[in-house]
Specification:
This protein is α+β, with helices and mostly antiparallel strands and about 80 residues long. About 30% of the residues lie in helices and about 20% in strands.
Amino acid sequence: MKDTGEFMGHSLVRMPEYKNRDGEFSISVFPKFLRQGYGTEAAMFTVGYAFRALGLQRLSLFVLDGNTATRRLYKDRFSGG
């Protein structure tokens, strides 16, 4: 968290082979910070960075079974609904 320096989770783009310009995206937010918009903010920043700064053409999402919030975020924000 910016104000306190407290760790809230992580957001990650992994590029197994950069030459393919494909990446794998995952995000994890600690339970205490869920449902406050932090995950959405981190995801939007990370995905934008992956395409703009890293030049990726495709990003795959890794989601744990039962993580309906992340699936909903992906569907609403990234797949066109």
